[in-house]
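Hello Y.,

Per our agreement to keep a running log of every chain we model this quarter, I'm adding this entry. I've kept the format consistent with earlier entries: sequence first, then predicted structure.
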Amino acid sequence: MCGFVGIVNYNKNLKDYVSIIKEMSEKISHRGPDENGFYINEKILFGHRRLVVRDKEGGAQPMSISYKGNTYTICYNGQIYNSEEIRKTLKENGIICNSYSDTEILLRAYIFYGYDVLKHLNGIFSFAIWDLKKEELFIARDEFGVKPFFYTFKNNNLIFASEIKSILCHPEVETIVDENGLCELFGLRSSSYSRSYSL
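Predicted structure for the entry above:
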C-alpha cells in the first residue's frame, strides 16, 4: 500500500521540526510495515512508509537522484502500469535506470519530462517531488484519485499526507470541520490534483 507525509515551509528551518514529521509518519505505519524513511532539509521534510512489493534495495524511499548538478527527491505511492515503456524511452534518450522500481522510473521520467511527466503516466499514483536547486515541490495524483493525497496550509506550512490523521497530528492543525469543508467534501469528492509550489 505505502504512504507518505511531508511539510514545506520557506520561512523557518524545518530541521528543528523532525519530531513532527516522525509523528506524522507513525500515524500511517500500517500502510508500510516493511520500511520507514525520511528526507530532512531546511525547507522540506518527507516521511515514507513502504510495503515492499518488488526490488527491496532499489525502491527505498524517499529516493534522491542527482542529475546535472541538481538533486531531485521523491515520495511516491502507487503503481505505474507503463513503467517498462517509460524505461525504454528513457534508455533511448541516454537515461539508464539502476533498479526495477517504478519509483526510480517515475523520478527519472520527471527529470526528463518536467511537468509534462503526467502526460506519459498510465497508472494509479500520488507523489511529491522536491527540486533542490529550484526549491520547488511538484505534487500530483492520478486522475481518479485512487491513491490518496490530503493537504492543508497553516502558518506558511504546506502539510500533506496519504491520510488525514497524519495531518491532524501536526500541532498547528486544528481538528475542526466547518461548513466550507463539508461542502467541498460532498461536492468535490475525489478529484485529480497536480500543482507546483514555491511558497
